[in-house]
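Session log. Operator J.P. requested a structure for one protein chain; no other inputs attached. Running the standard single-chain path with token output.
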Amino acid sequence: MEADASVDMFSKVLEHQLLQTTKLVEEHLDSEIQKLDQMDEDELERLKEKRLQALRKAQQQKQV
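Structure written below.
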């Protein structure tokens, strides 16, 4: 019986931690989406160019 109670308690703690982590990740993603939604065309173009440069650099490093 005591083992069952211990497992049940552990499951509840784990479930709580997973829910908290999920909420934090969701809030972070919502924040990132909101930032992207508020960007104008120039900012989006700069972000795209920066990402392309990072991809090109990573590709060059793989080839070396």
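Operator note: The helical segments are 2-37, 41-63.
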